[in-house]
Design goal:
347 residues; Rossmann fold; 3-stranded parallel β-sheet; 12 helices; 15 strands; globular
Length: 347
């Protein structure tokens, strides 16, 4: 297995260290656009290092009776132990990963409760990372994890990363009180501090074009590995315009927003300059709802790249779309029939 586009930084030259955690196995995490996006956003800062941590392949629950070495949870890039980072950021995509979050913190010898960590900071000069949660699960409902996490990012993270890092660096350089850090962070729109129970609104990146798709993307260059891990991820939209009652994607990512065709093409062209990936995976809850969906597909095919589409709505399928998907070397497609009746969708 060979990873491409990895950031390896000299820790002697950085001010802030971030452990980016996907609380499940490596191959699942490497198929996540969120991990690729956040990894690039943080590492774009010269004084910030962001390294990845995943759930080991073989573990025993709970971590108290897992007798394997805690070296198995060190970061991919520089083999740094989770407790040595300034910040641990969890990308929480599924509720089923809750137990994995508990396992990772316990294995890293980090107290599970934020309150306990704060007591140890004050009484025993304990030094623990700031524990941050984000992603669709945290945005939809952070309360089940509120006793464990110090900070939640609610909604889109891109617009507030700069402000967050600036306030954290100020806290670290001035050796300020941890509670002062939390108090300063609660003023950032889109950040929820459970111990302060501050009122927070979900942050929405209104114009996706303002934050380009990372063209220098993590991926695995290995024929034997999953095609998703070896693909370039091309985000075309966020949210979903259909608002089916049973689907949370329409709501935690509302409103539906499309990237412009020009922005998509520009990002794709830059990516081709930097990498020789063989396939392109379109990213979005409803990629076929993009007004220029067919043009995007044709452009990718014209560049001799294999096309990948996560799923497609049944009403968007027609002869022209099927022909395009066939030309893009798509062997199978996931069709989303949603429900058997409109009443179940919207009632």
């Amino acid at each position: 297995m060979y990873e491409k586009n990895v950031f390896i930084k000299d820790w002697r030259t950085i001010d802030i260290s971030i452990g980016l955690i996907y609380p499940n196995k490596y191959h699942l995490g490497m198929s996540s656009y969120s991990i690729r996006l956040l990894y690039n956003l943080f590492n774009d800062y010269e004084n910030v290092v962001c390294e990845r941590i995943f759930l080991p392949e073989k573990i025993t629950y709970p971590a108290d009776i897992d007798y394997s070495s805690d070296n198995i949870i060190r970061s991919i890039e520089n083999q740094v132990h989770p407790i040595e980072f300034d910040i641990l950021g969890f990308s929480i995509q599924f509720e089923n990963d809750f137990k994995n979050i508990l396992w990772l913190l316990n294995k890293a010898r980090i107290p599970l409760r934020a309150e306990k960590r704060q007591i140890l900071r004050e009484k025993e000069n304990g030094n623990f990372p700031v524990i941050i949660g984000g992603g669709p699960v945290a945005t939809s409902n952070p309360l089940p994890l509120s006793q464990m996490f110090d900070v939640f990012f609610i909604g889109d993270a891109e617009p507030i990363i700069d402000d967050f890092l600036r306030k954290y660096l100020n806290y670290k350089k001035n050796k300020s009180n941890f509670e002062n850090l939390l108090t300063s962070l609660k003023d950032i729109n889109g950040i929820y501090i459970p111990t302060l129970n501050n009122r927070v609104n979900r942050l929405v990146l209104k114009d996706l074009d303002n934050y380009p798709i990372p063209y220098y993307q993590l991926r695995i260059d290995n024929e034997k590995d999953s095609i998703f891990e070896n693909s370039f991820f091309l985000e075309v939209n966020r949210g979903c315009p259909f608002k089916c009652k049973f689907c949370i994607s329409s709501y935690h990512n509302f409103p539906f927003r499309n990237r412009s065709y020009e922005n998509i093409v520009e990002s794709f062209e830059k990516a081709i300059e930097y990498d020789d990936f063989r396939s392109v995976s379109l990213i979005g809850s409803c990629v076929s709802a993009h007004p220029r969906f067919l043009e995007i597909c044709r452009y990718i095919i014209m560049k001799n790249k294999r096309l990948m589409v996560p799923s497609i709505r049944i009403e968007h399928l027609n002869d022209e779309v099927i022909e395009i998907l066939e030309k893009g070397q798509i062997k199978t497609i996931t069709i989303a029939p949603e429900t058997g009746s409109e009443k179940l969708r919207f009632g």
